[in-house]
Specification:
- The protein has 64 residues and is of the alpha+beta class.
- The chain has one domain: 2-Layer Sandwich (Alpha-Beta Plaits), CATH 3.30.70.20.
- It has a two-stranded antiparallel sheet. The protein has a two-stranded antiparallel ribbon with strand order 2-3.
- A hairpin with a 5-residue loop joins strand 2 and strand 3.
- The radius of gyration is 10 Å and the shape is globular.
- 17% of the residues are buried.
- The chain binds iron/sulfur cluster.
- Iron/sulfur cluster binds next to helix 2.
Length: 64
């Protein structure tokens, strides 16, 4: 599934730690202001969603 259809970032609590980008560089990236974005056209297997969301220490990766 297209990742940006099912995931989003809660920028109010994101620490900009980069953990999600380090773990899943195919899905997440920083923009020029170190704001985490979900890459356009990134794909994620719905079965992997809990694992992907768990990487964030503050639960800023949430369902879209
Ligand atoms: S792991 Fe969480 S807190 Fe860290 S950059 Fe990603 S979304 Fe933000």
């Amino acid at each position: 599934m297209q990742a940006d259809k099912i995931l989003k970032i809660n920028h109010d609590i994101c620490l900009k730690c980069g953990g999600c980008i380090a773990a899943y560089p195919d899905i997440f990236e920083f923009d020029e202001n170190q704001k985490v974005l979900i890459k356009k056209k990134a794909q994620v297997n719905p079965e992997d969603l809990p694992k992907v969301k768990e990487i964030c220490p503050v639960a800023a990766i949430i369902d879209n």
